[in-house]
Each structure stands twice: as C-alpha cells, then as structure tokens.
Amino acid sequence: MTETYDTDVLYLATQGDGAVLTPDGNKAYIPQTLAGERVRLTKNADGKWQLAQVLQPSPNRQTPPCTLFERCGGCTLQHIKPATILQWKKATVQHALQKAGFTNLPACSAQQVQQHTRRRADLAVRRQPDGIIIGLHARNSSTVTDLTSCIVLHPDIMKALSAFRATLRSLNAIRREANLHINLLDSGLDVLLQTDGPLTAPDRVRLAQLATDQHIPRISWQLIKDTGLPEVAAQSGSVYQTIASHQITPPPGTFLQATGESEIYIQEAVIKSLPAKLNRRDIITELYAGCGTFTFPLAERARVNAYEGYAPALDALKKASGGTRINAFCRDLNHQPVLAKEIAASAVVVLDPPHAGAKLQMRQIAQGQPTHIIYVSCNPAALAQDASLLAKAGYTVENVTVVDQFLWSTEIEAVCSFKRESSRRNRNGLSR
C-alpha cells in the first residue's frame, strides 16, 4: 500500500520548491507547490516524498501557460503567477543580504521582462533514429525535450529552429550530440555550434547554405570538449550589437543579458547607483567587464578602468572604445585580482562576477575599502558570501534592484549598491 501524508507548505525555498515537514520531523522540498498550500504527498520507489495532490491551492497558483511544462526544464515555476515570482525573487535577494550580515535594508525595486523577449538560447542537440531533437534538458535529467514551442524565447529564434533541425540532421559532425548557442544580435542570429565530431567539407557547405537561407550573418563551430577559440564556419554578413550607442562585434558565443529590455533595466540601476558628485576625471574600476555592457554607460560619467579575463570579449570592447575614456585590461581576476591599493584609488568599483562570485577579487575590494561599490549579481548564494566581507568592513546597503529576466525560472539578477563612509587614509591609500 502506498504511504501518503497530508501537510502544509511552509515556504518557497531557494530552488523554487515548497518546503514541508515530513512525519519524521525532517524537511523535504516538493516541486510545483506554493507556500500556504495543503498538499498530499506519497513516497516514491526511492523512499522520497513527492506531490500526489494539491488539496487546498494557493490563490497565487495558475495553470501553466506552456504545453511543455514539466517536460522542459527551462521553466520550473509556471504554476506560479508572475507577480508572485517577482515578490519571491525580491525576498530571496533580501534574505541573501541579511545572511551576509546587513540590517535595515532599503526597499527593493523590481522589474520583470515580457514574454517572447529572450534573445539568448543555450540548447542541447540529440541525434535520434528519425531526426534531430533541439531543446532543453528535463529537470534533473539527461533527457532532452524537443523545443517545439516556447513562450519565453524571441520569435526570431523559434522560427529558425525547424531549419536548424533539417540542416543538423545532415551533418557528419554530429554523431550523437551537439550544443547550439544562439544570440539574437542587432545584426541577426549569431550561432555557435559545438559538435562531438569534426566538421567535414560537406558540413561547411550545408552550414553556409543555412546561413544564406536564414539570413544568419555568422555560424561558428568548435568541438564540444575544445577549450580553444571557435572558428567561423560560415559568414554571410557583418556581425554587430549596439551597447549605449557604441557598435561592437561580439565574439562567437558571447555573453549577453538575457533580453534587451533587461539589459536597459540593469544599466539604469547601475547608473542610478553612482554617486551624484562623481567627477568626470574620477576613476571607476569595472571588474568582469565583458564586451562593455556597463563600460560604455559608465564612461559617460567618469574614466573607466575595465578588466576582463576573456580576451576576445575585451578585444570587442577595445575596438569600439575609440574616443572614450576607457582603459581596458585583460586579466583573469580569479587568479590575478586587482589589488587593494588600486581599488582604494577608485571613486567607484563596479563588478559583474560569474555565477560562482568574485572570490579572491572580493577580498581585495573589501581591503581596499572604496566608498562606493556596485555589485551586479546573478546568484544570491554567491552574493551572500561576497557581501559578507563588505558587511564586516563597515558597508551599508544603499539600494537594491531585482530584475526578473529569466521568466518562470529560479534565476535571479540583482543590482546592489554598497557605501562605506570615508575614513582617514595612509600614504598607501588604504584605510587605517
């Protein structure tokens, strides 16, 4: 007989699953449940509790709008109304800052993007006996769900997928699997294809034809396990993207904010966080600058020393920075951080670290004690860890902006501004 258990959902945990107390007093996290709901659980074959029935649904529950929900792992929260998700993301960031040691937090502002606006897609490709599947992994699974519809991706990306399926099916370079990275730039789709086999001459002809037929300016390629730079397999036009009125040529597979709308929201939050009396000759130290998403807007307010570890991204920034007050430096900040002495000489430090956080670089920032720090976060757990050093160094949180650019997912983007009152400095520029 199947063991069942009725209980209440206490809260929504960091992965978007509802937390419940099990009969033995332990906590379990149940997908597709909401805080305040009464649910019936059953034990599966592995002895873990799973949702059997929602007995008393939350008013914040909705019918998932996508037919692929539960099979596609891209959106795990479609059973929750968007406004409720935004509130939960705000609370998650606030909790991260409290965990870091901050109290008396300011009110958190928030923005949420629209459907069908995501311009970046990282898709899995699988060869099947009857064709090619292009899509996303199911949650906690290696199974790939064919992305036949999507209410998040931009229509221009979705319209091209059928042509990709037809062409990729014919490629010798795809034996069993591949990865397809698509960015929708101002110039059109920019594609990076990673395959488990070498690209043959006929493959290159087919990709060139695909680029021509679909008006794709550039298709780049590399082997899945290759850590070097991709090569251009087909190019039918120029590749460009505009950032704050500066036109750049991003490298293949470049990182962009998920939507054009959210990029503007995040840029505005960063600029709003700058001190009002910033002098145009002051120095802003920007860390993890990428292709210049924040560099170009910041340079309108002061001089910018921009640091980035990925050389192709920095080259794109440099080529577009003529006539600006930008000095760009190629530096792996995880192994060679900008030191505290230089940090101390900065009017503002702006950083947009990777998912794992700033790590060694954050220690130098905390030791340098600049008056203003603007931290762009894509991971509340890393934010809590990094910001704890700032809390110990005497900083306060000036403002917080949350941007929900990953609809119906647990991913959270936030801009947090920290301030420390100026103190007397020694001859080396470090606080006593």
Automatic annotation (TrEMBL):
GO molecular function annotation: 4 iron, 4 sulfur cluster binding; rRNA (uridine-C5-)-methyltransferase activity
Any one of the GO BP annotations: rRNA base methylation
UniProt: S-adenosyl-L-methionine binding residues: 257, 288, 308, 352
Gene3D superfamilies: 2.40.50.1070, Nucleic acid-binding proteins, Vaccinia Virus protein VP39
PROSITE patterns, sorted: SAM_MT_RNA_M5U
Alphabetic keyword roster: 4Fe-4S, Iron, Iron-sulfur, Metal-binding, Methyltransferase, S-adenosyl-L-methionine, Transferase
Pfam families: tRNA_U5-meth_tr (PF05958)
Membrane-spanning parts: none
Keyword presence, Metal-binding: yes
Family of this protein: Belongs to the class I-like SAM-binding methyltransferase superfamily. RNA M5U methyltransferase family.
The protein's name: 23S rRNA methyltransferase
Organism: Acetobacter pomorum
